[in-house]
Amino acid sequence: MSFQSVGLKRLFREQGPLLILIGLMFLIFFAQEAFGPLWYMNLMSVPADVMESWNHLLEGRSSVADWKTFGTMLSYAFLHGDIEHITSNMTFFWIFGALLVELLGWRWMLVLFVGTSIAAAATHVGMHRDDLAPMLGASGALMGFEGAYLGLAVRWKLPSPHIWPMSRPVTPGQLALLAVVGVCLDYLNLMSGDGERIAYGAHVGGFTMGLLLASTVIPKPKSAWAAR
């Protein structure tokens, strides 16, 4: 058995669920390209539709259609607009997702993915209640991963991460700083009103939820020790 095959087996054993999640997103993207918008338009999250369904729920007259609309607050995260969109998202999704799997295990990674995706959608909906423009993309969950890593790095002393495509290990502080810079840029763009095509509010919402979860309910990683 070659060294390469051993390495691949180890990779799939340790990061299999994350790789499956990323692979699923690419498969869905290829299906989007093959079948066109009519195939996936009902899976995108439309703020005005979500708010209408929310009002129906408050009024006690929610229907199956309303719950399907609520489901788009997660399904949108599996969709992407073009090859550049999914490639850039999945690159950083892999970096921070793989580190979270190493630190917390794949189950917590999935909890963070679901929780931050929904939080990102809810933030976007809350800021654009009457907007009919649909939202798609895993950026909210990606920013949630970054927020979670920042929370872990502040709360615990973490080992220096080394994950492809980083050429060498870096300090947790440096990687956490990258997350901080990213969310600060999103916040500045959000405050400037430059958000016609990019849901900066969703980015900030996902990041905040990831940070909150890592700072409160997520347990101490086995490879970490208390910060001094």
UniProtKB/TrEMBL annotation:
<feature type="transmembrane region" description="Helical">
    <location>
        <begin position="198"/>
        <end position="218"/>
    </location>
</feature>
<keyword id="KW-0645">Protease</keyword>
<keyword id="KW-0378">Hydrolase</keyword>
<protein>
    <submittedName>
        <fullName>Rhomboid family intramembrane serine protease</fullName>
    </submittedName>
</protein>
<feature type="domain" description="Peptidase S54 rhomboid">
    <location>
        <begin position="72"/>
        <end position="218"/>
    </location>
</feature>
<keyword id="KW-0812">Transmembrane</keyword>
<dbReference type="GO" id="GO:0016020">
    <property type="term" value="C:membrane"/>
</dbReference>
<keyword id="KW-0472">Membrane</keyword>
<feature type="transmembrane region" description="Helical">
    <location>
        <begin position="175"/>
        <end position="192"/>
    </location>
</feature>
<comment type="similarity">
    <text>Belongs to the peptidase S54 family.</text>
</comment>
<dbReference type="GO" id="GO:0006508">
    <property type="term" value="P:proteolysis"/>
</dbReference>
<dbReference type="Pfam" id="PF01694">
    <property type="entry name" value="Rhomboid"/>
</dbReference>
<dbReference type="InterPro" id="IPR035952">
    <property type="entry name" value="Rhomboid-like_sf"/>
</dbReference>
<feature type="transmembrane region" description="Helical">
    <location>
        <begin position="133"/>
        <end position="154"/>
    </location>
</feature>
<keyword id="KW-1133">Transmembrane helix</keyword>
<dbReference type="InterPro" id="IPR050925">
    <property type="entry name" value="Rhomboid_protease_S54"/>
</dbReference>
<dbReference type="InterPro" id="IPR022764">
    <property type="entry name" value="Peptidase_S54_rhomboid_dom"/>
</dbReference>
<dbReference type="GO" id="GO:0004252">
    <property type="term" value="F:serine-type endopeptidase activity"/>
</dbReference>
<feature type="transmembrane region" description="Helical">
    <location>
        <begin position="108"/>
        <end position="127"/>
    </location>
</feature>
<feature type="transmembrane region" description="Helical">
    <location>
        <begin position="18"/>
        <end position="40"/>
    </location>
</feature>
